[in-house]
Amino acid sequence: KSANPQWREQFDFHYFSDRKDMLDIEVWRKDNKKHEELLGTCHVDITALPTKQTNCLELPLEKHPGSLLMLIAVAPCTGVSISDLCVCPLGDPNERQQISQRYCIKNSFRDIKDIGFLQVKVLKAVDLMAADFSGKSDPFCVLELGNDMLQTHTVYKNLNPEWNKVFTFPIKDIHDVLEVTVFDEDGDKPPDFLGKVAIPLLSV
């Protein structure tokens, strides 16, 4: 019930500088659980923004009245990584020992915001649903923790894909839930949902 909403939400996207990415933003209005209406869109060219500083942007909505006020910072990622199993960040015993020391009881209050991190090895999926007419799927896996999101590559024409990737997330809230979703890539169309699992951090 507001024409001037304030969300004050922070989202972290993992941007790789060798790509020409646009940040696409959509604003939606929700009447009830079933009816939604698009109120406008805007786009931000990430490559045009100065790095290592917070950019305050007022973005007019295209073809609709209104604008969005956003703070966007392009900065090096800390604590986030994607790697292959053979170069797993915690594979080195010396590194494991350093991390154990960093998060031991006596160092708990040294940096209150440094809660820890989560490492997830996404190995494979088995017996996925066939989403294509050929009886196959083009699956990829999306991992979400809080407002952080990472994803695997797509394995084409396969119901038993093997990704063998290692994902590392910084933990910002110990009560967060890791959500792992498998989608079928469908060209220019939105991906098809193939399944999902939710894992509370407190259960790990």
Automatic annotation (TrEMBL):
GO MF terms held by the record: calcium ion binding
Residues covered by the C2 domain: 1-59, 93-204
GO cellular component: synaptic vesicle membrane
Classification via SUPFAM superfamilies: C2 domain (Calcium/lipid-binding domain, CaLB) (SSF49562)
Subcellular location: Membrane
Principal location listed in the UniProt entry: membrane
Coiled coil: none
Membrane topology: Multi-pass membrane protein
Keyword line: Calcium, Membrane, Metal-binding, Repeat, Transmembrane, Transmembrane helix
GO biological process, alphabetically ordered: regulation of neurotransmitter secretion
Record family assignment: Belongs to the MCTP family.
Protein name listed in UniProt: MCTP2 protein
Source organism of the structure: Toxostoma redivivum (California thrasher)
Taxonomy of the source species: Eukaryota, Metazoa, Chordata, Craniata, Vertebrata
